[in-house]
């Protein structure tokens, strides 16, 4: 499936920053049970490739599993080898996008300006991460979508929680990357499940 197919299943990307390999499978199962279909393990988490591998083996085709905070193009091959199928960056680096695509993965790089967005799409990005969303607004997103190629999926990331999703969706957000509103280090699987339910409820209302 391509990125749009996964986002059609659920437009929320669970960002598990700080998750540990020993807990990641239970948390992944809790997320899937609540309908979350895209799970990202940032590379600045403990043993992230181990966590990605465990999730990929456990979840199979039930979820799109990948890595976030990918800064080095060389990491893309290692992520793919671990079983990851998604690369997310915090910054606009076309080299990481090209490396992710060469490794057969989906790429959702971070951007903040129209120039960055067009350069990343030219490099092969499957979607774009508007980051940090706290420094932008739904009006900014709407203006960007007016000039980018029709159908470009943009996911605001940063500060997204149940109370502020509706205006972003109305402006055209294809989905959201959700960090602390869905997982903080130390959260157990039931806690993550409860957060996911709250987000899903807010999404339905949006």
UniProtKB/TrEMBL annotation:
Keyword set, alphabetical order: Carbohydrate metabolism, Lyase
InterPro entries for this protein: Aldlse_KDPG_KHG, Aldolase_TIM
GO MF annotation: an example: lyase activity
Pathway this chain belongs to: Carbohydrate acid metabolism
Transmembrane segments: none
Family: Belongs to the KHG/KDPG aldolase family.
Summary of subunit composition and partner proteins: Homotrimer.
Name listed for the protein in its UniProt record: 2-dehydro-3-deoxy-6-phosphogalactonate aldolase
């Amino acid at each position: 499936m391509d990125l749009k197919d996964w986002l059609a299943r659920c437009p929320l990307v669970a960002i598990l920053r700080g998750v540990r390999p020993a807990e990641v499978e239970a948390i992944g199962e809790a997320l899937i049970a609540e309908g979350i279909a895209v799970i990202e393990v940032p590379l600045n988490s403990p043993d992230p490739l181990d966590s990605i591998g465990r999730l990929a083996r456990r979840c199979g085709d039930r979820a799109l599993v990948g890595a976030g905070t990918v800064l080095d193009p060389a990491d893309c091959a290692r992520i793919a080898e671990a079983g990851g199928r998604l690369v997310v960056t915090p910054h606009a680096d076309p080299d990481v996008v090209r490396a992710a695509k060469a490794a057969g993965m989906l790429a959702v790089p971070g951007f903040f300006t129209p120039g960055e967005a067009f350069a990343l799409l030219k490099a092969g990005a499957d979607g774009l991460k508007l980051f940090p969303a706290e420094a932008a607004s739904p009006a900014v997103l709407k203006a960007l979508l007016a000039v980018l190629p029709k159908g470009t999926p943009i996911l605001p990331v940063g500060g997204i929680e149940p109370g502020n999703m509706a205006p972003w969706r109305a402006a055209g957000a294809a989905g959201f990357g959700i960090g602390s509103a869905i997982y903080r280090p130390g959260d157990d699987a039931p806690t993550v499940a409860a957060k996911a339910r709250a987000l899903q409820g807010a999404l339905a209302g949006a």
